[in-house]
Amino acid sequence: MLGGRPVVPVLALWSLAMLGSKPALAQATEFSAPAACPSRDALLELVHERLPMGVDKIPAFGVKVQAKGRGFRGTLELGRSAPRELRGETCVEVLEAMAIILVLRAERQHEEEQAESGPAAAFLAEPLPTESAPEPSAVDPVVKTPSVVGPLAQPLRPSPAPSKEQGFAYRFGAGLVILPDIAPAVSWGPVALVALERAGAWSLRLGVERTATGTMDTQPAATWARLSAARLGGCVGQLGPSWASVRPCLQLAGGVFEAGGIRNDAITRVRRIGRPWASLGGSLRAELRLSRQLVLAGEAAWLMPFVRQQLAFESPDAVVYQTGAISRYFGATVEFVMGRSKGAVPGIAR
User: Fold this and answer.
1) How far is Cα 311 from Cα 164, in angstroms, rounded to an integer?
2) CA 308, CA 97: separation in Å to the nearest integer?
């Protein structure tokens, strides 16, 4: 007996603490991973080797790893906390990231338990002083970092912070174009386009369209008009989030404008005319990202025609329509995105 306390139980507790036994795990621990991944025991070994001295308990957790595309996606569940999702190029990277999270959670849990424990528990956690024990040194203690051993032992470095989508991308799309100012009636028709862009920076697109008015009720005879054109557009910058953005753009259009009359009792001879068409102006483009590969886009432009067209009859002379100084453009397209690289994800990189 020493100071009214039994010596043997205290020494036994101190001996168990110094043995470095593996951390205790809850019965609810689950582990699911493809056969090519390291085993559950390999993950636990890595966690144990990283734990600082004195931390001997790992919280209950669940691990699920699945192959996803060219990499792997893992889900880590810790008690009542929201599941953590991690991605990596290899299964080893995902499990290494999970091991680091488990070590941090174990350290925090240990600190909380120490804060709640009383003086008696703190006394039992320390070895009993003996006559042969050396006096404390004034030199700063040296902290020894446990080395990583086992199947997962590999040099690690922090991964870059998560980033947005990056790199170049190609787009292919189709939709509808409406031109309300090139003829007495609205001209509309299909459009197909291709585009090259750099996420959030700039984009270039080339579209080919063919619009027509159909038969227009004009005097002294009915007429028709159509426009076959190619449009080159460029956008710079982005306003708003990536999933719902607006971009200022510049648009250049060129093509062939065609028109003609339809014979009736007053007009017995008609002919078709073809004239060059060109215009330049600014536009606003709005995009709604439905998924990583699918985008719904709309664009409105106000263009200045280089050549102002005039529809007229001769014998009798009659002007049917003359284009104004501004020609409006409205378009809506569905576009498919290809080639964009993914941003960095949280985890462990080599």
Assistant:
1) 52
2) 65
Residues ≥6 apart with Cβ < 8 Å to 195:
170, 171, 172, 173, 203, 204, 205, 206, 335
Sign of CA dihedral 272, 276, 282, 287: positive
Question: Which token pair is 272?
Answer: 């078709």
For residue 293, what are its two tokens? 């590969």
80: buried, middle or exposed (CB in 10 Å: 19+, 13-18, 0-12)?
exposed
How far is it, in rounded angstroms, from Cα 73 to Cα 217? 63
Rg value, the chain, Cα = 37
Please compute the mean of the pLDDT values over residues 157-167 and round it to a whole number.
50
Given a contact cutoff of 8 angstroms between Cβ atoms, the answer to whether 309 and 273 are in contact is no
Q: Which residue has the higher pLDDT, 41 or 9?
A: 41
Q: Which residue has the higher pLDDT, 249 or 104?
A: 249
From the CB of residue 81, how many other CB atoms can be counted at a distance below 10 Å?
A: 11
Encode burial over 31-59: b for 16+ CB neighbours within 10 A, e otherwise. Answer: bebeeebbebebbbbbbbbbbeeebbebb
Residues 6 or more apart whose CB falls under 8 angstroms from that of 27 comprise none
Tell me the two tokens of residue 120: 């008696």
Report strand pairing: 157-158 vs 348-349: antiparallel
From CA 349, how far away is CA 60, in angstroms rounded? Answer: 26
Which of 13-17, 51-55, 303-307 is modeled with the greatest confidence?
303-307
| Position with higher pLDDT, 137 vs 73 | 73
With 0-12 CB in 10 A as exposed, 13-18 as middle and 19+ as buried, what is 338? exposed
Q: Average pLDDT of the chain?
A: 77
Strand partners, 278: 254
Our CA angle for 188, 193, 197, nearest 5°, is 135
